[in-house]
Amino acid sequence: MPWFRALEEFSDSENVSESKRDDDHDQEVLPKVIEKTILPKITAFVKSVWDPLSTSQTKNLVQLCNNIFAKQVLSKNESSRAREDLMNTVVLRMKKSVEEDVFIPVYPKSTVEDKSSPCSKFQERRFWSAVKLLSNVVLWDGIVQEDKVRDLGLSKLLNRYLLLNILNTPLGPESIEKCKKVVSCLPERWFQDLKSGSTLPELVNFCQHLLQCAHTLHKNNHSAAIKFFPFLFLNSDETKEVLLLLVKVGALHIVEDFIEEHKLEHLKSMIGK
Q1: Which terminal residue of the chain has fewer beta carbons within 10 Å of its beta carbon, N or C?
Q2: Boundaries of each GCF C-terminal domain copy (predicted)?
């Protein structure tokens, strides 16, 4: 808006060195206007308007916060109380959405075996709605503290709701697709600095499920090869898919042990060996 551009030009904070910025009170005008007027307004919108289940709303809000925080250049010794209030409100709103909007019913196996049944369709809709919320929560990575994003996305959403549904989904393309979608939601940055060959603590149970899937797929594939093609080596693309998911989340030791156990030396390249 014109008044904002006028204040920005007056402050011209982007062209002032950091050492001079601390001594020039003119540079405080724009950050203080943002602090006193804009951030409280956004906080009110977050509290009463924003729907964390809406991807378009969440992307717009994340972009808005990034743009505003880039303008709000503070001196070394300053902290933004309004910014903290906004981030706390974002976390509380997402937590409320996890607690109130996520519901994935667990039906008897016989009830959901028929994929066209109302129960099966409802369960699937609720699962994918929760996955959508997971992807929206993770959009805040880099703005909201990482431990809070991981707590909401992994400890609460994945381990309490999504994983139970995944465990109850028969092993096959559908269950693998669900696991792939979960992994695709997670920021690569979370796994770049893992040096132990182990994944994040919040993903241990998920990785154990992937490992069990890999064992079962390899066993079934191996049995089929012996029965029908005893003279051929039969490679399972599904097994490799599952192992790649483990690699993406940093569970390299699990993959390495699996390769050694089943003597799959041709797959060592996926762990850089």
Answers
A1: N
A2: 1-161
